[in-house]
Specification:
Blueprint (H helix, E strand, L loop, with lengths): L4 H12 L12 H7 L9 E5 L5 H9 L3 E6 L11 E4 L12 E7 L9 H10 E12 L4 H11 L14 H10 L3 E8 L5 H15 L20 H10 L2 E7 L7
Parallel strand pairs: 1-2, 1-4, 2-3, 4-5
Antiparallel strand pairs: 5-7, 6-7
């Protein structure tokens, strides 16, 4: 059974909203991915769709005086007065048509029974020529096998009922909603010694009830110069796929 909105809110309130919220670390791959697509004109509107505790939104806001809005299922989060927040689901934002130049949705879209409902909503609220950035678990990666094993034994409660899709399935869904696929990539294809160490420490913290630290992903500086075949490999086998899609600009059709 897929988690409903209330269950997701409860689980992530416990996981994300306790203690002081800090901006995402500059070395995190997802943040670097977002920042590489930020508009030059800081008056353009940006949406963080499914912002969690606001780590990425805070980091983006600190990167410049962007017109940034964030949404999620929580009643409220700490915005540090740097961006707007309101409660909404990513597949039913109630926002105005053709409002945003950039939407980023990090590790959220797979919670929906049908991801296309959010993609359709993103298409509606994006300006023509605007971009959507998605990150999501990859169907065939070692990390997802690990996730499925944990879930089978009662752990990973936040992934209960979640369906895992391939990058190809996500891009097919985006294309079906009218988007043009701009780039497909991913990050962290294998467990590094550093990641194994972090996993052991994380298990130790769980056993002894210690506070979990935010997960850090180290930037891979080669991502921008990877050949297409290697990008495809990372998109299908990595920890997360990274997908960029564009709403066609009516003036260029």
């Amino acid at each position: 059974m897929t988690l409903d909105h209330k269950s997701i809110e409860t689980i992530y309130s416990d996981r994300l909203l306790k203690g002081t919220i800090h901006p995402a670390n500059e070395n995190e791959e997802p943040l670097q991915f977002i920042k590489s697509w930020l508009p030059m004109n800081k008056e353009e509107k940006i949406l963080d769709a499914g912002c969690g505790n606001g780590r990425y939104a805070l980091a983006v806001a600190n990167a410049g005086n962007y017109d940034l809005t964030a949404i999620d299922l929580f009643e409220s989060i700490d915005t540090s007065s740097l961006f707007r927040y309101f409660r909404a689901s990513i597949d039913d934002t109630k926002l105005t048509d053709s409002l945003f130049t950039l939407i980023y949705c990090m590790s959220v879209i797979f919670y929906l029974p049908n991801p296309r409902t959010a993609m359709s909503e993103f298409y509606r609220i994006l300006k023509p020529g605007g971009f959507v950035l998605l990150s999501a678990h990859t169907k065939y990666s070692l990390f997802t096998l690990d996730r499925k094993v944990q879930r089978a034994f009662g752990a990973a409660k936040h992934l209960k009922g979640v369906a895992f899709y391939s990058a190809k399935e996500y891009t097919d869904m985006l294309s079906a909603e009218g988007f043009q696929i701009v780039d497909v990539d991913g990050y962290e294809m294998f467990y590094s010694p550093w990641m194994v160490h972090k996993k052991i420490i994380g298990a130790f913290r769980k056993v002894f009830g210690l506070k979990q630290k935010a997960r850090l992903t180290v930037v891979n500086c080669t991502r921008k110069i990877r050949p297409a075949w290697l990008k495809w490999l990372y998109s299908e086998l990595g920890y997360h796929s990274l997908i960029v899609a564009q709403k066609p600009d009516v003036h260029n059709i």
